[in-house]
Design a protein that fits this description.
alpha/beta, Rossmann fold, Adenine-specific Methyltransferase, domain 2, 11 helices, 8 strands, 16% strand
């Protein structure tokens, strides 16, 4: 049984908090977990590996994590000053959003990143094509200050290395004995639901194909297991051909009209290392008909076009 679950300190579209038990059950034992798309870090926070390599293409996110790891007391104290009624006003929010987009000061950007995440609409992280953060004001009564969650993250991050690299480079850093878990921007359910402007760059079909190809190569040729989350679509089934599939039915929480929210199926594709298949070792192998219903909040398919 897993111990008490730990929440990420950032609000995050597509966060894996509600699915961590199922993901953890499919991760084989390893000396290091590598996450090329770490996001808010729910899998990191709820697994027990001795070391972690955590990557994200968003430089603001990785800058924040590195500062939180290095100087948690000062950073958390300075962030706390922005969680008072005077900062929870529309004009103040847009003024600080402008400051965030103008400053190059990494420490100040880290503070404002947490402020904007908790005071902005729906916890979205969205940038314009020019790289400007453009999420509107969230109008929350009293935004939650995640002090406890930040201290927990800072403590656990002592086991982690944070990088801001393309996912291909992260794969090249993996070694035998490691396991890779990928939570990429999801393949869109419909053409209008493409998740394209996270970190001001697109993750389209060529990227999805490249990731699937890398996962297969890494498991078969290098003996390193890879687990990938995505929407359960004919496209992704074809993409991950040769993987062991398990399905998850997740209740979405992105529709404005609660009555129209329908469960959307997700897939976990596990690429076992060649050695495991040869030796007949069933670790991490999942029957393709294994369907699990999960009632949680999931927003990966959120459209975030600027």
């Amino acid at each position: 049984m897993m111990q008490k679950k730990n929440r990420a300190f950032l609000k995050w579209a597509g966060g894996k908090y509600s699915l961590v038990e199922h993901i953890q059950a499919r991760l084989p034992q390893a000396n290091k977990l590598i996450e090329p798309f770490v996001g808010a870090g729910s899998v990191f926070l709820n697994t027990q590996f001795s070391r972690y390599l955590l990557n994200d293409i968003n430089p603001d996110l990785i800058n924040l994590y590195n500062l939180l790891k290095a100087q948690p007391d000062a950073l958390i104290n300075d962030i706390s000053t922005f969680f008072s009624p005077r900062y929870n006003e529309e004009a103040m929010y847009y003024s600080l959003r402008e400051e965030f987009n103008a400053t190059q000061d990494e420490y100040y950007r880290a503070i404002l990143f947490v402020y904007l995440n908790r005071h902005g609409y729906n916890g979205l992280c969205r940038y314009s094509l020019a790289g400007k953060f453009n999420v509107p004001f969230g109008r929350y009564k009293k935004p939650y200050f995640p002090e406890h969650e930040m201290f927990f993250f800072a403590e656990k991050s002592q086991k982690a290395t944070f990088t801001c690299l393309p996912f291909e480079k992260v794969f090249s850093r993996a070694r035998k004995g490691n396991v890779i878990y990928c939570d990429p921007p999801y393949a869109p359910i419909s053409k209008t639901a493409a998740f394209t402007s996270y970190a001001a760059r697109s993750f389209g079909q060529p990227s999805q194909e490249k990731l699937a190809e890398l996962a297969l190569q890494t498991s078969k040729k290098r003996g390193i297991p890879v687990l990938i989350s995505n929407h359960d679509l004919p496209f992704t089934r074809h993409l991950y051909k040769g993987a062991d599939f398990s399905m998850l039915s997740v209740k979405r929480s992105i529709s404005q009209n609660g009555a129209t929210r329908k469960p959307v199926d997700e897939i976990l594709a596990f690429f076992p290392p060649s050695a495991m298949k040869t030796a007949g070792n069933p670790v991490g192998k999942v029957k393709s008909k294994n369907a699990i219903k999960v009632m949680g909040h999931h927003k990966k398919e959120q459209s975030v076009k600027p």
